[in-house]
Give the backbone structure.
Amino acid sequence: MSSTVATNTSRFAADLRDSTSPSRKLRDKLFLTGLWVATLIGVLTLFFLVLSTLLKGYTRLNLSLITNFPSPFPEDAGIQAAIFGSIWVVVTSGVVSLFIALGSAIYLEEFASQSSRFNRLISINIQTLAGVPSIVFGILGLAFVARGWLGWGFTVGTASAVLTMMVLPVMIVSAREALKAVPSSLREGSYALGATKWQAISKQVLPAAIPGIATGSILGVSRALGESAPLILLGALAYVSSNPSGLSSDYTVLPLVIMKYTQEAQDEFRAVGAAAIIVLLLLLVSLNLLAIVIRDRSRKSW
Amino acid sequence: MVENMNKVMDAGVSSAAPTSDTVRGVSLRTDNAQAGSAGLPAQEMIMESRDLQVHYGDYLAVRNVNLQIHRNEITALIGPSGCGKSTIIRCFNRMNDLIPSAKVGGTVLYRGIDLYGPEANAGEVRRRIGMVFQKPNPFPKSIYDNVAFGPRVNGKPSKSETDELVETSLKRAALWEEVKDRLKQPAFSLSGGQQQRLCIARALAVDPDVLLMDEPCSALDPIATGRIEDLMHEIKGQYPIVIVTHNMQQAARVSDRTAFFNTEVDADATRPTGVLVEYDATRKIFSTPSDPRTEQYITGRMG
């Protein structure tokens, strides 16, 4: 009797032993190494880029960089006009596109009939626009906003309008996703208490979608902050020695100041360019951090 | 619209009583006399469906449902999956309006007024006929704001009125003692059973006339279920309750009347359609049902 139990035990023990073949283990390791290498390539590239930029620009990373305006002398040259230009352009286009994107996303997600052909056409159109190269928006802005029909010239207003057009599709798509992620039990719960459609949307659905909408919008805004191609066509590549004072002012933006300084022959000017890159990176990182903070603070579980 | 509806509804109360008896005589499988013989006292009828049927697109999901909901009673809807119980209960407060493909035929009368008629506003219907869902669905807000949401969307109560409403609603839902010290905490900090009682409190806060419950205990453990069932007994005098349940023991425990639904494949259809097989006093359904299909179901030989 006891011997049967013993043999049984040893048989089960044999079943628990690792029977994975060595070649399978090797493949496991190779796969894991592959994943590590892929991750490292991204991280290391960024690290060396930032490091080499810092090394080139650290001499100019001082207060005069952000207090001074452009100058023929590299040691006096600063980027304040570009910083303020970027802020003007990005804030105006961000605010305008946020409201338009919210409106269209709410309409398309909550009101529009999902089976209507017209609405599906609009959706496909928006998704396509999100993939259009930014230079195309620049050409559009040059033809219809700066010149032609609107004739706003090379101003902050023109740049904001074009960046709005460029950022809108991305923002609409992400706001729609955020609204779609709100569970329908929230809508049902509101309706069951006698709420109207607008009450259900404004008091329950929108507040629940804010984290998603905010994240998407801030990512859209950071795209606008780093954008250069359409603004080259719209007069931002100029020598601007004053901060914008309104929508009709001349302007320049950080990416184009970087482009201008890094093309200069003198090392001292290129140092200003490198320092400006660091400033732009800092702005982008802080925008992304803001997105993360908003997302985490209002994260909800249901 | 709200005032209008009130007038119509007040008119409905007085006119419903004299006409209701003839209505019962014509369209019912089980009239009041039969129910009375099963030991239920005669009660005023609050809601009634006549030849109610629902299509989803071309598919007839449930047909020819004639049900009466009475004051002071709990009515249970039982039957196998897919027999249209939830579809029917969602017709009673026009929640099916939210499904674009759903098409409701027949009539649902609430105190003599057609819920799908031109005088009825869906929001006002839902305020008077409250609903509790299968899965507890508190809003991602504080306990207080969850209860206060209904009163707020239906008017502008003052701070003290809201405070009072929140307290009485939570007391009616037997949740006050557990949450009175943490009203400002998120509703999701509550347990599943507490969340469901919060949803009941939320529904009671708009002072409905009828309470619909769509499998309110299917996501809860037996203890939480017991508390909800006790609660249903406590409030049924104030709010007639219609409950959909998968659990026959629950139907037998809590309800005064039971409607048994089943599925049938109609001659010209490919998918089964729900039908109301039998509607009677719960005691009769579970002891001496008149339809053999009901007997098969309650004895566990079907479904």
